Amino acid sequence: MTTTDGHMCESDQRPLGEAVIRGWCKRCPNCGAGPLFVGYLTVRDHCPVCTEDLHHHHSDDGPAYLTVLIVGALMTPLLAWVVSAFNPDPLVVTSVFTIGCVGLALYLLPRLKGVMVALQWAKRMHGFGDRT
């Protein structure tokens, strides 16, 4: 519900922190019980538990950019430390860090997409606030 000046009423606020945690766990931001995804990254049209519409999301490339940013920020200093401290064979470094980067990216990507969908749901962005 919005007031006459366009601001949302306090009773109409959605819990941001709780929604983000549910999104990180790949769960429905509304109830926390239903799965958010059909497959690896495909968001369901609606929650099978609470029937909340989820098709409004517009995450686009946001989760991918965040994934690259986080993986790069974590792995770059680790790579520099390993090379300077142990001076390993370049093939070993390349193999280990390639597997590590890909594994971390595959772990983070659906969770960050869940966070983006939950953030949009909590802030009523892109149609999540429409009453129909």
| N-to-C SSE string, H for helix and E for strand | HHH
Number of structurally distinct domains: 1
Question: What is the terminal separation in angstroms?
Answer: 13 Å
Morphology call? elongated
- Count of individual helical segments: 3
Beta strand count? 0
Helical residue percent band: 40-55%
Class computed from helices, strands and strand pairing: mainly alpha
Structural Rg? 19 Å
**Low-pLDDT segments:** none
What's the story with the biggest beta sheet? none
Relative strand content: under 5%
Keywords: Membrane, Transmembrane, Transmembrane helix
Transmembrane segments: 64-84, 90-109
Describe the structure.
InterPro entries: DUF983. It holds the Pfam family DUF983. The chain has helices spanning about 15-25, 60-85, 90-120. The model has no long low-confidence stretch (mean pLDDT about 90). It contains three helices and no strands. Helices cover about 50% and strands about 0% of the residues. The chain has one domain (about 10-120). The chain is mainly α and about 130 residues long. It is elongated and about 55 Å long. It starts with 15 loop residues before the first helix and ends in a 10-residue tail after the last helix. Helix 1 packs across helix 3 (about 90-120) and helix 2 packs antiparallel against helix 3 (about 90-120).
Q: Which key terms come to mind for this protein?
A:
132 residues; mainly alpha; transmembrane; transmembrane helix; membrane
